[in-house]
Design a protein that fits this description.
Chain lengths: 269, 327
């Protein structure tokens, strides 16, 4: 009994924080089914305006286009980042030498470079090669990050070297050891990296806003931000757009949640 | 032409490397090419694996960073830029730019209040979730982490709606009689900053908690139980046994959060739009305004970006030093 009482403040705190965490999400979901008027009169119950809001949103905004761009950017970035960073992290750990350790230290310094400090020259670079408004221009700067390389390098510490030797004796090339043994073994790390990269790429706002000019190509975050920029905001429609632009990342997270936790834990041993 | 030929003839010929001693025997065994032995080949393969990532970081981070520095010494509009006279003109201009000083101040208010508060909350939550007797663990973890899946723009707009003058928060507070009339949350500097800080706490506490939870998996739980046996209360156990073991992770999250807060943009853009009158605008938001709105001035914007760069570097250095100190 006393033990249970002692646990009470803990549960209370968790409950408060969990409610605080979930409430805005609940508000977002419920409001997307309500009219603007109902949202402002704080209706906390699901309404019947969902289809009206959908019709209004799709009629006024190019949601399909923005969704497509956002998916292309997020999936493209995730695939390329996982490929480039995992093979680099593997390379740093398995073939490590003094020169490579030095290179790693230099690359880690890049973590300290705020994006703001590289944004303008990057914009000039992509403008010079005629890539303004190109989705590639959004993807390329996000592919290689010191954080992901570090994540993969740390996780590779637990990759058994005996397997590596055995595979070499069996005559597997270095690249196929990576592709056929390393990648399947490190599934949890890949899941964690995929969750992080997909979310970052999908949610990225500043850089797409800079390089995709004049609203000719939009991402979902850009579209939602534009919705609230007018003088009159339809809150029901706005909350629907917010919900639509949050669903993909939420689904990715919920599906890969367990692997995500495992991957992070494996990397910081 | 003739002189060219003579100089070429005079040029001392580089001596061909001659092997005095015999090369290691194993180079000849089982390999026709002695230079490219297995070790060398593997090392080269390793370099091959690193090159794409390293080249991308060099081209997308280091080179632009250096270019930004030269840009920060130039003035002019659009693409017509020339070196300023004096060279540090843009930096001098920063000192008398009241809006820049205001955005610097705003960013520091966010940093000083939000980062420590968030890290402490994340530590407490992680510690609670790490208790093996806790029930519904998965439920708590998912609920607390879920905000991290929402984009910054999305949640900013949700908070903007919740804190609208005729929005939910005023209705609720008015309904239970806590406030007489509606508060103009986003229309006053202090309350608008409060909403931004609250939003940041909502979005990022769970994210940091995940890192602490992961680090706690590597903390020996028996050390915590031992402290409990010795009669330490939960706070003492937490503070004297758990926290010191998490120190490296605390330093890492502190650096990441500082870095993120100094680069704050989305919330300033979408939640408060920098207002009222620049009172909540972040440095990155101002940087964007100087670069791409009204009269774009890349040179001046680059100078602002260098201030952010230096602040990030200095604060990271301080945090690493503090984290290194043994106590």
């Amino acid at each position: 009994m006393i033990k249970k009482l002692r646990a009470l403040p803990g549960y209370a705190f968790l409950t408060v924080w969990a409610l605080f965490s979930v409430f805005p999400l609940y508000f977002m979901v419920v409001s997307s089914t309500n009219t603007s008027q109902q949202v402002l009169s704080s209706s906390m119950l699901p309404g019947t305006a969902l289809f009206d809001n959908v019709a209004k949103l799709f009629a006024t905004q190019d949601v399909v286009g923005a969704m497509t761009s956002s998916f292309l950017i997020a999936i493209g970035t995730t695939v390329l980042a996982l490929l480039v960073c995992s093979i680099a992290g593997y390379g740093f750990e398995v073939y490590h030498s003094r020169g490579k350790d030095l290179l790693m230290a230099v690359l880690l310094l890049a973590m300290m470079i705020p994006f703001a400090a590289t944004m303008i020259p990057l914009f000039q670079l992509f403008a010079r090669v005629g890539m303004v408004n190109s989705l590639w221009a959004v993807i390329i700067p996000m592919i290689s990050t010191p954080f992901l390389i570090l994540l993969f390098r740390q996780a590779s510490r637990s990759f058994p070297h005996e397997i590596l030797e055995a595979a070499r004796i069996d005559g597997l090339s270095e690249l196929s050891i990576y592709a056929r043994i390393y990648v399947p073994t490190m599934r949890a790390t890949f899941a964690a990296a995929a969750v992080i990269t997909f979310m970052t790429a999908w949610n990225n706002f500043l850089w797409p806003k800079v390089i995709l000019v004049n609203n000719s190509v939009l991402t979902m975050p850009m579209l939602t931000a534009n919705l609230s920029a007018g003088y009159v905001t339809d809150y029901g429609v706005l909350m629907l757009a917010v919900l639509l632009s949050s669903l993909p990342t939420m689904i990715v997270f919920l599906v890969l949640q367990r692997q995500f936790a495992q991957g992070i834990t494996g990397a910081i041993k | 032409m003739a002189s060219d030929a003579t100089t070429r003839a005079k040029k001392p010929r580089a001596p061909k490397p001659q092997r005095r001693s015999a090369p290691p025997l194993d180079n000849y065994i089982g390999s026709r090419k002695p230079w490219l032995n297995t070790t060398r080949r593997r090392s080269l393969t390793g370099w091959g694996f690193l090159i794409p990532a390293a080249l991308l970081i060099a081209l997308m981070s280091f080179v632009p960073m250096i270019q930004a520095f030269f840009l920060s010494l130039q003035t002019g509009r659009g693409t017509r830029l020339e070196f300023a006279d004096p060279l540090w003109y843009n930096y001098q201009r920063l000192l008398s730019d009241e809006i820049f000083k205001l955005t610097l101040q705003n960013t520091f208010i966010y940093l000083i209040i939000q980062v420590p508060l968030m890290l402490v909350l994340a530590l407490i939550l992680a510690n609670l979730l790490n208790n093996p007797n806790l029930k519904f663990k998965g439920l708590w973890r998912t609920a607390i982490f879920l905000p991290c899946a929402v984009s910054l723009v999305s949640y900013s707009l949700v908070f903007r709606t919740l804190f609208a003058t005729d929005g939910f928060v005023n209705d609720m507070l008015g309904g239970i009689g806590l406030i007489g009339g509606p508060i103009n949350w986003l229309g006053q500097a202090e309350t608008a900053r409060f909403v931004i800080i609250l939003g940041l706490l909502w979005r990022w506490t769970g994210y940091n908690m995940v890192f602490y939870l992961a680090a706690l998996q590597n903390v020996d739980y028996s050390s915590i139980e031992a402290a409990r046996m010795d009669g330490a209360n939960s706070f003492q156990t937490f503070w004297y046994v758990t926290v010191p073991q998490l120190k490296p992770m605390i330093v890492l999250t502190a650096i990441m959060s500082t870095n993120g807060t100094l680069q704050l943009f989305d919330e300033s853009w979408a939640l408060t739009k920098g207002g009222p009158a620049y009172q909540t605008m972040s440095m990155s938001h101002y940087l964007y305004e100087v670069s791409f709105q009204k009269n774009p001035n890349f040179g001046y914007a680059a100078a602002i970006s260098y201030v952010i760069l230096i602040l990030v570097a200095v604060l990271a250095l301080i945090q690493m030093k503090v984290g290194d100190k043994r106590d």
